[in-house]
């Protein structure tokens, strides 16, 4: 989340669009929650509300990332864009444990977060080979060596 803020901070003083400003403001409670969880062990209602907000924000961010990964694979035009695609995919893979920990804190006795986490990781590994398969069937109009 801090990297997301760092990415947008270069545009704060120049020209910032409304979507970037909204993204910055919406991520601040998540950063606050994660720092508070790291240093303080407070079991208040506010902490529970922040957990639910953080979980929802990270879920929407992950869904946005998954849709983005599929769109990149379909629009990259040739297989040479495979390395940045895999780097983005690995970034989404690192969000998996954060999502799992947030879900486990919210749904204490349920095994659904574990199953969702396993399905998420399997989906990411399936998406890793998507551009290669599209290239083999001639989707990009070029064949890599």
Task: Write structural notes for this entry.
This protein has 145 residues and is mostly helical. The protein folds into two domains: 1-41; 58-145. It has six helices and no strands. Helix 1 packs antiparallel against helix 2 (18-39), helix 3 runs antiparallel to helix 4 and helix 4 (82-106) runs antiparallel to helix 5 (112-128). The radius of gyration is 18 Å and the shape is flat. The N and C termini lie far apart (38 Å).
Looking at how many chains there are and whether they match, the oligomeric state comes to single chain
Q: Which bin fits the share of residues in helices? A: over 70%
Query: What structural category characterises the helix and strand content?
Result: mainly alpha
Terminus-to-terminus distance? 38 Å
What average pLDDT do the residues reach?
77
- Name the beta content range: under 5%
The overall strand count is 0
Query: In the residues, how many domains can be counted?
Result: 2
Could you list the spans in which at least 5 consecutive residues all have pLDDT below 50? none
What's the Cα radius of gyration?
18 Å
Principal-axis shape equals: flat
What is the string of helix and strand elements? HHHHHH
Number of helices: 6
Tell me about the largest β-sheet.
none
